[in-house]
Write a structure and sequence with these properties.
Alpha-Beta Plaits; 4-stranded antiparallel β-sheet; alpha/beta; 259 residues; 2 domains; 6-stranded mixed β-sheet; 12 strands; Molybdenum Cofactor Biosythetic Enzyme, Chain A
Length: 259
């Protein structure tokens, strides 16, 4: 099998940056929004990492993760305070200078007016070669992209605005078809059969999830793929098996497009 140095198309890596996330003082509200938004247009999230506000650690992570995904989304560490070092880390990771971007500086001066100071002006410093997006008259804050990295803020409201703007620029990959079965069985009742089933249906992603104390069902099996026909084939075999065993409580096929 030949290997390629090209990142896998339609894939996303997520890097959440912040000591506050690792200490538990702030709850992560961003990764779920990013995952749902990109999944809706057919992009698959391959990894989520949470790392501290450490310049070297951020740079190391981005050097390692960037080549593996079509796009990488970072969240956090791009404000005016001492621990906002993400953009410095991006520059360090890819061995480019950190420069003051004229477009960003003009935006900040217009945004802050008389409140503008040296600390706020730090936010105009971006890695050389970065794209600072001001392509929408209604944009409230620039969108910074460096190569395949989108560098986003940690504040959930601001991040969601930027994620929505990124999604609007992407070519949809085709949505995922999904289905799920709810069973009265325990995972241990079917795990061997499910493992063999997965080997036969490599074109779909299969998940099995136990639910303790649920009065309706004990486990849920999910099937997911960009290929709706593959999901239908897998679901037919799954349904036949669990129905014969008397385990099927109910199914949900709303996620399979008609056709």
């Amino acid at each position: 099998m030949s290997e390629s140095n090209e990142p896998a198309g339609g894939t996303i890596g997520i890097v959440l940056i912040g000591d506050e996330l690792l200490s538990g003082s702030v709850e992560d509200l961003n990764s779920a929004y990013i995952i749902r938004s990109f999944s809706a247009v057919g992009y698959s999230v391959g990894e989520v990492r949470i790392i501290p506000d450490d310049r070297e650690r951020i740079a190391e992570t981005l050097r390692e993760i960037s080549p593996r995904f079509e796009y990488v989304i970072t969240s956090g560490g791009i404000g005016p305070t001492h621990d906002d070092v993400t953009l410095e880390a991006v520059a360090s990771a890819f061995n480019v200078d950190l420069i003051e971007d004229a477009t960003m500086a003009a935006f900040l001066e217009n945004h802050y007016g008389e409140r503008m100071n040296g600390s706020l002006r730090r936010m105009a410093r971006v890695p050389s070669g970065a794209d600072v997006g001001l392509n929408d008259g209604q944009v409230t804050w620039p969108l910074i992209r460096f190569r395949n990295l989108f560098v986003l803020p940690g504040l959930p409201r601001a991040l969601r605005d930027k994620v929505d703007r990124i999604i609007a620029t992407l070519e949809p990959m085709g949505g995922f078809a999904t289905a799920e079965l709810f069973l009265s069985a325990y995972e241990s009742d079917y795990v061997d059969w499910l493992n063999s089933f997965i080997e036969r249906h490599t074109e779909v992603s299969v998940g099995s999830y136990p639910y303790w104390g649920n009065p309706e069902y004990r486990t849920r099996i999910t099937v997911r793929s960009r290929d709706g026909n593959a999901v239908r084939r897998a679901l037919d075999e799954l349904t036949s098996y669990v129905d014969e065993k008397g385990w099927l409580v109910r199914s949900n096929t709303d996620g399979i497009p008609a056709g």
